[in-house]
Structures are given as C-alpha cells and as structure tokens.
Amino acid sequence: MRKRWVLRHRTKESVTRIAGELAWSVGAGLDQIVPTEHLGRTVRAAVLHDFAETVEMFADDENRRDGAASPAWWHLTLTPSVAKTLDWYIRCFSGEECATIGEIQREARKTWGVSAADTLSALRSALDLDGELTKKQRETYFALLEPHEDTD
Predict the structure, then answer these.
(1) Is the pLDDT of residue 128 over 60?
(2) pLDDT tens string 74-116
(3) Which of 69, 74, 89, 139 is the most buried (most CB within 10 A)?
C-alpha cells in the first residue's frame, strides 16, 4: 500500500479505494482493536455508579419526608456523559449492549429493588435527553428489550 501513496499515483479514486479497504479492515478486526467485553463492563459500572448517586440523593430527601427509601424509576438518572457513552455503545456494538443492559437491570433489581421495566424507563429517559439515536430507533430498540409480563 505504501507504493500507492507516491504522489504520482495518489488520485482521488485511489485514496477513496484505499480508505474503503482500511475501513473494512478496521471494521472486520474491531473485536481485536476495542475490547468490547471490558468496554461493556465499564459502561455498566458507569451507569450503576450514576444510578447509585441519584438513588442515594433521592433516598435522603424521601427519608426526611416520610421514611420511605424505595426508589422510583425517575430516581435512576444518568449524567450526560454517561448517557452519551451508553448511546454510543448501543449504536456501535450491536448485540454486545443487550447483555450489558440485562446486567444493569439485574443489578438495579438486586441493589435497589427496581424492576427491569423501570430500569429500562430510566435508560430510555436518559437517551431521550442526551442520546443520538432517533426517536424511532429508541422506540424500536427499547421495545425489543421490554421484559415479559412474568418478569419484574
């Protein structure tokens, strides 16, 4: 490929062809370039960290009022940077993100008693505000993730 970059051979068509070949090469080897397993764990940790901070904040407010500490789905909020990262992860790593979101739902249920549907509502709300997926893409995506009736 290096020979193709000699000035006399460098044309718009050759550059476009080489760029296409490089894009396919990177796309095909993305698993080796980006450690998706670890990336998913990092996204999961960031989401759960943001959830924990807001649940704690709302729990303090509610404890002062009525002694209740059970979080509602709107208590699970994400900072814009975490929401944008989750949105990017969903857009770029199709298939990988479903397992990550399932782990987020399971952990939210175990830690705060929040149902899977409520966790999805919180994630959907965060992506509505800060994500780049279109409304139609978000609706389709979250419809696929909706838990069955017999699931909390």
Answers:
(1) yes
(2) 778 999 999 999 999 998 887 788 889 999 999 999 998 888 9
(3) 89
76 neighbors 108 (Cβ within 8 angstroms): yes
Report the C-alpha gap between 86 and 92 in whole angstroms: 10
- Domain match, 100 and 138 both: yes
36 burial (CB, 10 Å; 0-12 / 13-18 / 19+) is: middle
- CA separation for the pair 98, 14 (Å, rounded): 39
- Is there a domain that residue 109 lies in? yes
Instruction: Based on the fold, state whether residues 40 and 22 are members of the same structural domain.
Output: no
> Would you say 75 and 54 are in contact if contact means Cβ atoms under 8 Å apart?
yes
Same domain for 44 and 25: no
By residue range, what is the domain housing residue 15? 1-33
> pLDDT value at position 62?
54
